[in-house]
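Hello again, I could really use a second opinion on something today. I've been staring at a protein lately and its backbone has me curious. Please have a think about how the structure follows from the sequence. I owe you a coffee for this, so here goes:
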Amino acid sequence: MKELAERFIGKECVISSFDGGRQYDGIIKEVTDGAILIEKEGNAEVINLDFVSRIREYPRKANGKKKSVILD
């Protein structure tokens, strides 16, 4: 998972996890052996890689703006 997560460094992503189905979003700054560091609005957050189920780039509309609603 670490190698795959490293492909998203510097990109704004949505990260889904197993801990209650929570979703995190922000720019991935760093990936280590056991965690992902994301930043959103100047605040940093660390997510345990063991609980990550899905990582994807933030969906955008045809004109390049971020979608306001994400349905999975």
Observations:
- The first strand starts at residue 12 and ends at 17.
